[in-house]
Amino acid sequence: MKKQHSIGAYILIGIGVFFLLRQLKVPILTNFYSWQTIVIIIGLALLIHSFKTKTYQNIFSGIVILGIGIHFHGLQHYSFWIDHWAMYILIIGLAFLIRYTKTKDGFFYGILLTGIAVLLLFPFSLPGWLSWVYVVFDLVEKYWAIILIIIGFYLLRKGK
Length: 160
Known about the structure:
By secondary structure, the chain is mostly helical. It has six helices and no strands. Helix 2 runs antiparallel to helix 3 (59-77), helix 3 runs antiparallel to helix 4 and helix 4 runs antiparallel to helix 5 (107-121). The longest helix has 28 residues, at 132-159. The model has no long low-confidence stretch (mean pLDDT 87).
């Protein structure tokens, strides 16, 4: 089988196993009969394809899709799961770091995004002279979508 067709094969196998297990109604897997599981399967298929073909071009997207699927599954089924927008930054930061292990690209972005996400997810008390940091983070939490748009446009302009 050609390498470009193997990703579709992995997705079809994963989704086929998902629907077979759903049809068999295996009691231990009832929490996994959801759309989040299909997102997880697609992310895993991208990762398996990247590692099997040793091209590593789909590692980043595989980790992001897998992470989003796991996050939505956690939100749906576990009361302790953190429901904060910084989880998406953490997923992207981890995707950069995992991709770095194979491609040696994206380490700075991975550390930066992971660090920001950890600071936002697990707040701590700062000394009084650093109180301005709280104001900055309040602005970021309020206007984070605009910041993402600006960064996206910057990256598009930088690429030209």
